[in-house]
Amino acid sequence: MELICPAGTPAAFREAVDAGADAVYCGFRDETNARNFPGLNFSRAELGEAIAYARRKGTQTFVALNTFMRAGHESLWYQAAADAVRLGADALILADFGLMAHVAETYPEQRLHVSVQASASRSGRGEFSGGGLRRKTGGAAAHADDLRHRPARPPDPL
Description:
Elements: E1 4-6, H1 10-18, E2 23-26, H2 44-56, E3 60-65, H3 74-87, E4 91-94, H4 97-106, E5 111-114, E6 133-136, H5 144-148
Parallel strand pairs: 1-2, 2-3, 3-4, 4-5, 5-6
């Protein structure tokens, strides 16, 4: 089992790393992040520093781009993905399947995780494969017993 902690600020990120998190997830200070609230999240420079800090301590960084692209404004999400990859994110947590397809094609080596915001809400609906997807992110209220008792079957194709 891994300890994956959220961080809304650079200080919280460092605390999570120092406390022994296996990975920390965070997002940019813009609408690509579902928790885009005043005073929270990361500029590009702050995220770069956080990723470097985590690497020195052996901790992974997952960047959440967990909102849905707005028609005509896709470039904001594409640029956020490009920035996260350039800064060295270990994985991107994505909700929008169009963005997943773009990232999988543009950055085929980038690890992708499916966000709970992708709306998979019942057993069997979150079993994804292909397109570089490697992990489904369960909701914050997911009980450990629910995660342990997932069906042991191969994932359904996308």
